[in-house]
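Q: Here's a chain of 158 amino acids. Please give me its 3D structure as tokens.
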Amino acid sequence: MTFWVEHPAGRRENVKLHVVNRSPDPVSEVQVVLRVLRGSAGADAEHPLRERGEEELWVLPLASLGPCAETVYLAPNMRLEVVPRNDRKSLDEWPKLSDQGFWRVGSMYFVDSSGKGWIRTAEALDERSSPPVDLVTHIIYWDDEQVDKADHCEGDSR
């Protein structure tokens, strides 16, 4: 399992998050934790007591990923929602990840086919029995992800 963020030509509306399972087995309980910097100066209209520039943890709950799969999420199709839900009625009213000041992947938690939990960061892969975020109140919803066969999948006969 791995991830990376693609920044084509520095345009926020084209930023993509890649999540890859190169194992021949599915993984479950996948949670990608994003570190989101929500602007740079002044108060946030949605949260007037919080100063902009503060980094928040947001969770992209993916449930499971199939074997040998690369899933790509386009930032403008990823929406931020606080739980319990606020008064926004339509997904189109929720803030887009692509409109935020800056974001990056902090970690990814998953459970392998033998039931063992793992946490992946940019630097390491470590065994972990529980997800990194205990109480999830900042959720990222998405639509229209693209799923392809992962290159260099373990067990491939190439």
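Q: Can you summarize the key feature?
A: Confidence is low (pLDDT under 50) at residues 40-45.
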